[in-house]
Design goal:
With about 375 residues, this protein is of the alpha/beta class. It has helices at about 45-50, 75-80, 100, 115-125, 140-155, 170-185, 200-205, 230-235, 290-295, 320-325, 335, 345-350, 355-360, 365-374; strands at about 5-15, 20-30, 35-40, 60-65, 70, 85, 160-165, 190-195, 210-215, 215-220, 255-265, 265-275, 305-310, 310-315. It folds into three domains: about 5-90 and about 140-240, Rossmann fold; about 250-330, no CATH class; about 340-374, no CATH class.
């Protein structure tokens, strides 16, 4: 790893309508390092990377790339400076092929589609990706989409690539493939900024990690210093033991939701109980059944077994049934499965309530609802 900074950030500040979001960020990125960026939600991570990729313009401060001042005002300027990002929802043209996405911007050079696909195949092969250049991007798995987006930035000779929660939708095997690709890019001299809440991944991959809290850098740790208890303390300014919820000695609240022997075509009978004010975590490998529980409880798939809401037996055969008893699903892929991007915010917010609103003659209430959540 080259110790000379490829990116230097000094006293970077960002204000939104008088709210101080970044309060003087100082950090640097070395050439050829994998640099973790950690912090609670709201610590300033997203704002920082949006400034680096020129989605936002900083209120004040200094950014230098390879020693030169950087004052980009658009994502195109960031791309030209060699800085790009890969988000959880890979930004691909889904109706185009893998080759077309990979070579986007240079299509005029490729009159022969077969030649274009052969060139894309050579690029993918060089970095160890086994993806069919002729496949439609929309048909790829989440992992393949992530890696194709990474390959595109690599092919375009980006110097700094920011990865935002890259394994959030990947299985263990898919994550290992992604890690191998990240290490390959590091060996090629690229700098990777790795944003994740999964500390085990940060310890496995990152050379250093910078921790943000309340818009400030509180520490930059070397790999050997990345310890779960210490990182937790730095992120929230309290020790892990302080975060434990003490039992006040009161009786547990009523059971809000209970399922008994819930099963589907892909899920063995499963039982669980959730009390009021509880947060119940359900974890396991992708395909292990978690998604079956959420789909059954939200009325998306058929199930067998019993469901009780506040002690009363319920049958959930549709999403409207689920909403009637107060069960709502926020799906994994909000962009594809929860939003209509061609509709307004008011229309999106009002959709689950249209029947109720129309009966009351209050469709215009949607605008008020949208303003309350914005």
């Amino acid at each position: 790893m080259d110790a000379r900074p490829i990116v230097e950030i000094r006293d970077l500040r960002e204000d939104f309508s008088g709210v101080h979001v970044l309060k003087g960020i100082d950090m640097s990125l070395a050439r050829g390092e994998i640099h973790g960026l950690l912090g609670e939600n709201g610590a300033g991570k997203s704002t920082l990377i949006k400034i680096l990729t020129c989605v936002y313009t900083a209120s004040s401060g200094d950014i230098r790339i390879e020693g030169e001042p950087f004052h980009g005002h658009s994502p195109k300027a960031a791309n030209e400076a060699g800085v790009g990002a890969v988000y959880q929802d890979a930004e691909l043209a889904w109706n185009m092929t893998v080759a077309e996405n990979l070579l986007l911007g240079s299509e005029s050079r490729w009159i022969d589609r077969r030649a274009m696909e052969r060139e894309a195949g050579r690029i993918l092969s060089r970095i160890g990706l086994d993806i069919d250049p002729a496949a439609r991007a929309g048909a790829l798995t989440a992992a393949q989409m992530q890696m194709l987006t990474l390959a595109t930035l690599f092919h375009r000779k980006f110097k700094v690539i920011i990865l935002d929660e890259p394994t959030a939708r990947l299985s263990g095997r898919e994550s290992e493939l992604l890690f191998a690709l990240i290490r390959r890019f590091k060996a090629e001299g690229l700098t990777i900024v790795y944003i994740s809440h999964r500390l085990n991944e940060v310890k496995l991959l990152c050379d250093r990690a910078t921790i943000l809290r309340d818009g400030r850098v509180v520490a930059t740790l070397a790999r050997g210093e990345i310890d779960e208890a210490e990182v937790t303390r730095l992120m929230v300014n309290r020790s892990a033991s302080d975060l434990e919820i003490a039992n006040p000695g009161f009786a547990r609240p009523d059971v809000a939701l209970e399922v008994k022997a819930l099963g589907t075509a892909k899920l063995s009978p499963t039982s669980l109980r959730v009390h009021r004010s509880d947060i119940l975590g359900i974890t396991g490998p992708i395909g292990g059944g978690m998604e079956q529980i959420e789909k059954a409880l939200s009325g998306l798939i058929a199930y067998h077994g019993e469901i009780f809401a506040e002690g009363r037996p319920m049958r959930i055969d549709s999403p409207s049934d689920a909403l009637d008893i107060g069960v709502a699903l926020i799906p994994e892929d909000r962009r594809k499965q929860a939003l209509f991007p061609n509709l307004t915010m008011a229309e999106n917010v009002a959709l689950p309530l249209l029947d109720r609103l129309s009966r009351l003659g209050m469709v215009l209430l949607a605008a008020t609802l949208a303003s309350e959540v914005s």
